[in-house]
Design a protein that fits this description.
about 260 residues; two-stranded antiparallel ribbon; 6 helices
Amino acid sequence: KHAIYLQKKQECENMEQLRIFGELLTANLYRISRGSKMIAVENYYDPDCKTIDIPIDNTISPQANAQRYFKQYAKLKTASHMLNDQISNNEAEIKYLESLLLNIDNCTDLMQLEELKQELVQQGYIRPPKKAVSVTPSSPMQFVSQSGIEILIGRNNLQNDQLTLKTASKDDLWLHIKDAAGSHVIVRSASPDPNTIEFAAKLAAYFSKSKQASKVAVDATKVRFVKKPRGAKPGMVIYENQTTYFVSPTDININKI
C-alpha cells in the first residue's frame, strides 16, 4: 500500500499538467491535423510562453483528446483529496505492526506471546483459535532508580495502554522513543531527579526499535499530556509539551540491572 500511495501521490503532483494539456488542446483544436500523434503549441500558462509538446491519441477526435485530459485531471484531483488520509492511516498501521515486532522481541516467556496473539485476534489480523487459551495478563517490567523511584515499562501494546491511561498518575513522567516503535515508560514521580530521568530515558531507548543505535532521541512529558486518539490501535498515543533527551541505549546492561 505504501508504494502504491506514493506512486499515486507522484501522479497527483503532475495533475495540473493534465489540465493545462486539456486547456491548450481546446484552444488549438483547429491546428490539429488528422492522424497527428503530437502537437507543439505555445503554453500561455508559462510566463515565457514556451512551446510545449502535447501527446495525442490519433484514434479519437481532438475534442475527445482534450476531454480525456480533463477527466484524468478530475480523477487525480479527487484522489489527491483522499491520499493524505490514506497515507497517514497506512503509516500509523506500519508503526503499529513495527511495535508488535518489537513486543515479540521483548517477550521472555510463551504466555507473553499468547498475550500478543490475543491482541492480533482482537485487531483482526489473525483468526481466533478453535480452542480458547486462558491467559493470565503479565505484569509490566519494573525497575528502581538509584534514588529509589519506581519505573514501569510496558511489555506489549495492551500493557502500554494500561500503564499510561489507567495505572499512571497524571503528574507521573511518561517517556517514549521519538518517532519509532517502543515501550511506554512511566516514572512514578511528579518531580524525578535528573539521574532518574536519564536512566528512564535509556530504558525507553533500550526497549525500542533503536536499541542498537549509539544515540537515540527520547521524548518525556507528564502523563496528563498524553492522549489516545479515538479509534487508535493499542499502544498508539499522541502527546505534547515534551522535552527531548539524547541518550545511548548501549550504556546500560539490562541483565545486570
